[in-house]
Structures are given as C-alpha cells and as structure tokens.
Specification:
The structure holds two protein chains of two kinds.
Chain A: E1 13-14, E2 18-21, H1 28-35, H2 49-66, E3 70-75, E4 81-88, E5 97-102, H3 111-125, E6 133-136, H4 141-149, E7 153-154, E8 166-169, H5 173-176, H6 180-193
Antiparallel strand pairs in A: 1-2, 2-3, 3-4, 4-5, 6-8, 7-8
Helix pairs in contact in A: 1-2
Chain B: E1 11-12, E2 16-19, H1 26-34, H2 47-64, E3 68-73, E4 79-86, E5 95-100, H3 109-124, E6 131-134, H4 139-147, E7 151-158, E8 161-167
Antiparallel strand pairs in B: 1-2, 2-3, 3-4, 4-5, 6-8, 7-8
The chains are: A alpha+beta, B alpha+beta.
C-alpha cells in the first residue's frame, strides 16, 4: 500500500483566531481554487491544474529541503483554510522571504496580519532568523500595505528576485521585540478579533 | 531547523542507492532540465521551473504515498538521475519514470534503478503492473522499457503530449 506520511513534524502555531499547520493533502482543493484563479496574478499565476498541483507538492518539499516553509492557515473555530503564510526560499533566491496569501473572500479580517506576525515571530524566535524580506509585485497594493503594517520598509539596496518585484525589509528581531510597532500590530489584531470592532473603508488583508 | 523529514525509503542495489533528493542534488538536475536531453520529460526548463519540479518530487511522496527517488552512486553519493513512480495531476495512473544525468548515461544506471524501484513498488507500495509514458520519438527509453519486459499497450497522452503507454509485467509473472 502507498505509504502514509503524517505532517506531524511541522510545528503548529496557534494564535488568537488561527491555527497554522503544515500543508496536508485534504487542504489542496482550496489551494487549487486560489492558484488557478486571477487571485494568483501576483504569485506567478493563474496556474493550470498541473502547475497548481506541482506547486502544492513543492510547498511540502520546501519543508524538507529548508526545514521551514509555508503553513496552512486554519480558522481556529471551524478549521476551514483561509490562506497560507510562512518562510519561502526557492533555489537561486537572494534571501529567504516571509510570504503570505489569503484565499479570495477571506480578506478584510486581518487574517494575513495575524498569520504573518505569528510566523515572523516563529522564524525569528525558534529558527533564529536575523533578518527577513518580502518580495512583492509593485502592483500588489494590498500586500504592500500589509508589509508596511508589519513594519517592513522598502529596501532599494536589496537584490530582487527577477526585477519584477520590490523588496521590503522586515524589522530585525531586536528592533521588533517589545516595540511600539509590535504592540500596535497586536492591538490591530485585537481590534479585528473583537466582533464589536467594525473597520471602516475597504477591506485590506 | 526543524526535524521535518519525509520517511522516504532507501533502496540499495549493486552500484546504486535510491534515496530522497536533497538540495545538493539540484545542480545536476537543473543541468539536465536546462539541456536538450530533457526534451522528452517536459524540458528544456528555466531553473525556477526545474526547482519546482525538483522540490515537488518530495511533496509527491506526501500527497500520494509514493514518488521518485534520487539515484546516487553508492560509492560516492554522486547524483546520477531519478527513478520512481509519478502520478501528478493529469496522469491516468501511476507510472514508472526514469531519467539519468548526462555523465551517467550509457552505464545501465537507469536499468538497474528502474528494476529496483519497480520491484520495491510491487512489494511495498501496492504498485504492480504499472505503466510508463514514453514519447514516440524517445527510442532510448523505449529500448529500456522493452529490456525491462514492458510492452506497448496503447497510444495515450500526458499534458496534451501524445505518447506511448507501455505496460510493465506484474512482478508475479516475471
């Protein structure tokens, strides 16, 4: 019989509203729905069904090769998947990045902020990263806004992946720890988590 | 680093070791996929695409419970090629696939590796009497399939590319 591979060795990260786990076979349909859609236009997509499957397999392979990778974001209460966030570094990339994607229809609730803040804390803390970037398509305004809410700033001196991206540099671990920025991020997440809080304006990730 | 490692089995043959691919194998793989020698297996490809295929071969094991091994020289661990079972999106059923890197060509590496992988699949993975998709122009792979005792079953296609479907004998009937 085919072997059964438990993803149990991938650490689980829990936040106020989310549980982040490694990508599992049963999570694939929502990944495919996003990466074969126009939603993936800033992430090399839309992909065809074969490319999408191969990318999902590559997400899992990344964990084995690097020892870190992209977590699947689950709703803490319903377990439904909402997107992915984590560390990402294909071959020949200049640096490891902190990356995120939120499924269509799940934006506007601060999910990406909460997930990206948590994975950055894990990559800095448990894995000892001393810096991190995010490579973002300059037309991807939602992601640029999120990078800025996370305290990342444009790093013009850093090498981009292929020149079609802008490099945002995250605050270093020491600059982030117990900072006004970190407290502000946690307060913003708290406001999203509080059902009485109704943000005005259009949804942002 | 975390301890995440897929428990991919290791197979030893007389000259070879079949094991999980690792990052140090990628340059050899990228060189194959950048060259014209990859024309029957989806290439030539840019390194970024080759990387996706390379890392996806690990995730394939997690998603399907079987996959491809990296074939290395038993003596010094030099990467020589890949062999194993492929069942990505668009495949009719699991296939036994193989390719060797340029320096390893002509030494019977693919034959030795494919024989071992096929036997392992039949004995341990529930994969017996599998197919191999082979491009109609890929005479070398056709010769290897014939040497392995496989026969052409029908014309088929993968990813829109016409190919021959070869059927391997069940291990019990060898």
């Amino acid at each position: 019989m085919p072997l059964s591979f438990a993803p149990s060795a991938i650490p689980v990260i829990e936040t106020r509203r989310l549980i982040l786990r490694g990508p599992e076979p049963q999570d694939y349909p929502t990944f495919k729905a996003t990466f074969t859609s126009y939603r993936a236009r800033f992430m090399g997509g839309p992909l065809n069904a074969y490319e999408s499957w191969m990318l999902y397999a590559a997400e899992i392979g990344h964990w084995q090769i690097r020892g870190y990778g992209m977590w699947m974001i689950h709703d803490r209460d319903t377990d439904e998947t909402l997107g992915m966030a984590g560390g990402w570094k294909p071959a020949m990339w200049p640096e490891a990045e902190i990356a995120w994607v939120i499924w269509p229809g799940k934006e506007g609730r601060g999910i990406a902020l909460e997930a990206a803040h948590a994975v950055r804390g894990y990559l800095y803390g448990a894995l000892g990263w001393d810096t991190a970037v995010s490579y973002i398509d300059p037309k991807n305004l939602d992601s640029i806004r999120l990078a800025e809410r996370l305290g990342a700033v444009k790093d013009a001196a850093a090498t981009p992946v292929d020149g079609n991206d802008v490099v945002y540099r995250h605050p270093a671990p020491a600059a982030l720890a117990d900072s006004q920025l970190a407290h502000g991020i946690e307060m913003e997440i708290g406001h999203y988590a509080d059902p009485l809080f109704k943000p005005k304006g259009w949804p942002i990730d | 680093m975390t301890g995440f490692a897929l428990p991919i089995p290791v197979i030893e043959t007389e000259r070879l070791i079949l094991r999980a691919p690792r990052e140090s194998d990628f340059p050899a793989h990228a060189a194959l996929m950048a060259s014209d020698r990859s024309r029957f297996i989806g290439g030539p490809q840019e390194p970024a695409f080759a990387w996706r295929g390379f890392s996806a071969s690990l995730g394939h094991w997690a998603l399907r419970g079987y996959g491809m091994w990296l074939v290395a020289d038993k003596a010094d661990d030099t990467p020589l090629g890949r062999v194993g079972f492929i069942n990505a999106y668009g495949w009719d059923e699991p296939e036994l696939g193989w390719h060797v890197y340029a320096a390893a060509e002509g030494k019977g590496v693919a034959y030795e590796a494919a024989l071992a992988a096929r036997a392992y699949g039949a004995a341990h993975l529930g994969l017996d009497g599998v197919i191999s998709y082979i491009d109609p122009a890929n005479a070398r792979s056709q010769a290897l399939a014939a040497r392995l005792g496989a026969e052409v079953e029908r014309d088929g296609e993968v990813m829109g590319h016409p190919c021959q479907v070869w059927r391997h004998p069940k291990q019990g009937t060898l």
